[in-house]
Automatic annotation (TrEMBL):
Organism for this UniProt entry: Streptomyces nogalater
Gene3D superfamilies: ACP-like
InterPro entries attached to this UniProt entry: ACP-like_sf, PP-bd_ACP
Residue ranges occupied by any Carrier domain in the UniProt entry: 20-85
Signal peptide annotation: none
Lineage: Bacteria, Bacillati, Actinomycetota, Actinomycetes, Kitasatosporales
Source organism, top-level taxon: Bacteria
Protein name: Acyl carrier protein
Length: 98
């Protein structure tokens, strides 16, 4: 049995996560953000939208974003959010192996 089967989670596909986060940001902001675009510097996102991003990531990817993970650097770009999701899912899978 693979780790994904054991945890009930699909394998992590970073490209699919980038696409899904990009669609969410585009729908919410009516922009077309680049994966490496700084959403805050360019004015696409603000602190209120950052909280929407947290909720979106938690609900969509079954992760918990808390404590030190609530840093702006984790939400600056679509790529950084995808990396955060990947790390949190990997940590969750590792925790469930124990």
């Amino acid at each position: 049995m693979t780790p994904e089967q054991q945890t009930g989670k699909a394998p992590f596909d970073v490209d699919a996560v980038v696409d899904e986060i990009t669609r969410f940001v585009a729908e919410q902001t009516r922009t077309k953000p680049g994966a490496d675009q700084d959403l805050f510097v360019t004015g696409v996102a603000n602190s209120m939208f950052a909280m929407q991003l947290v909720v979106f990531l938690e609900q969509t990817y079954s992760v918990t974003v808390a404590g030190p993970d609530l840093q702006l650097t984790n939400f600056r770009t679509v790529e950084s959010m995808a990396a955060l999701v990947g790390r949190l899912r990997a940590e969750s899978a590792a925790d469930s192996d124990v």
